[in-house]
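INFO  loader      accepted 1 record
INFO  loader      residues=112
INFO  predictor   begin
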Amino acid sequence: MRLLCLLAFFCLVPACSNPFDSSIDVRYEVTGSAELVNITYQNDSGGISQVTSMPLPWSLSFSGDPADYVYLSAQNQGETGSVTVTIFKDGDVFKRASSEGSHVIASVSGTL
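INFO  predictor   done
INFO  writer      dumping tokens
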């Protein structure tokens, strides 16, 4: 009977989060004063994606798992300007790097 009561309690409390859900909210963000950048990143499937000639700011969000590898890089396509790349993990800054100048690259990576 106690088991049935516990099951009923857990099934009837939808506002509670799943204790077995270990997903991590990941957000890539590229900011700066550069007019256009080329961006390379590790996507949510584990592959590499690229976007070219993107205006700033740019961001992308997805769900990751513990021990997933994340990578973000951006290259200034102009003669002047700055580029800052940031990876957020569950809303907090996980990795950040900046660079300034002609065709500079800023990149960050890590394991969640």
